[in-house]
Amino acid sequence: SRHLNLRQIKILRLLQNLESIGVDEYAKKYSVTKMTALRDLRGLLSENRVIRVGKARATRYLLPTISNLK
């Protein structure tokens, strides 16, 4: 498993209280480009720390739970 950056650690904490987040929201919250936001979220996805729902601009990232893994 690779090391997470500070933004990724913060977003995992935030997602415990937030239902989900999109790339645009992530980019605004952490003042990064959409590409950096996408890279961070994809990194979390590849580590199975978040799951992705939706397609294209409607894509959201959320924490995996028993109910949404079915």
Features:
mainly alpha, 3 helices, 70 residues, globular
Describe the structure.
It is a single chain. The chain contains 3 helices and 2 strands. A two-stranded antiparallel sheet has the order 1-2. It is mainly alpha-helical and 70 residues long. The longest helix has 13 residues, at 34-46. The mean pLDDT is 92.
Tell me briefly what this model is.
The chain has 70 residues and is mostly helical. It has helices spanning 6-14, 23-30, 34-46, and strands spanning 51-53, 60-62.
User: Which geometry do the CA atoms define?
Assistant: globular
Q: How many alpha or pi helices?
A: 3
Placed side by side, the strands forming the largest sheet appear as 1-2
How widely separated are the two ends?
24 Å
Instruction: Give Rg in angstroms.
Output: 11 Å
Helix content: 40-55%
User: Residue ranges: pLDDT <50 for 5 or more in a row?
Assistant: none
In percent, how much strand structure appears in the residues? Answer: 5-15%
Major pleated sheet: 2 strands, antiparallel
Order of helices and strands: HHHEE
Strand-pairing-aware structural class: mainly alpha
Q: Summarize model confidence as the mean pLDDT.
A: 92
Total number of beta strands: 2
Provide the fold topology.
Layout: H1 6-14, H2 23-30, H3 34-46, E1 51-53, E2 60-62
Antiparallel strand pairs: 1-2
Helix pairs in contact: 2-3
